[in-house]
Amino acid sequence: MKNINFVILCIVFLSINIFGQGTPPAVSDNANISDNSLKMRSAELEKTKRDETVAAAAKFAPINKDIVARFPQIKEDFEGLQMAQAAIITAYTTGKKIDYSLIETSANEILKKAKRLDSNLFSPQTEIIEDDPAKKDEKKQKTIRDLIVELDNTIGSFVSSKIFGNIKIIEPEVAIKTRTDLIKIEKLSIELAKESAKLK
What we know:
This protein has 200 residues and is mostly helical. It has helices spanning 2-20, 30-60, 71-93, 100-121, 133-136, 144-159, 172-199.
C-alpha cells in the first residue's frame, strides 16, 4: 500500500513539473505595434522639425542663386576678414601702447567685408530687427578686450562653417548658423569701432 501511494505521489509530482514547463504564453503582437507606432511618431516629429528648419532657412538665410559666380569675391572677403581681425589682435596685444586707431580702422574693414559676404552668400534680406533700445541700458557694457575676444570667436566660428567646404550643397542648419555669425560679426565690429574711437 505504501509503495502504491509512493508511486502515485511520484506521478503527480512529475505531472506538475511537466505541465509547469509547458510552452510559454504567446507574446502579443501589441508590443510590435507599439514599437512601430513610436517609430512613426518619432519620424513624423523629425520631419516636422526638418520642415521648420528648411522654412526658417528660406526666410532668414536663403542662399544666393549666383553664389558660385561670386565665389572669387567671397574668397577675398573671407581672407580679408581674418587679416583685419589679426591686425586688431596685434594692435591690442603688442607694443607699449594700444593702437586704437588701427583697431577702429580694422573693425570698420571687418564690417565692410562682413556686409559684402552677407550679400554674396545670401539672397536679399528683409531688414534685420535691431535690439530693443530700452534693453540696451540693461546690458553690461563690454570692454574693448571683451569685444575683441567675442569678435575673434565669432569670426572663428564663421570661417569654419561647412558652407565654405561645398557651396553647391548647403544644409539649412548651416545656412542659418553662418548668417547668424555674420550678423553678430557686423554688430560687434560696429561696437568695437565706436569704443576704439573714444579711446584713440
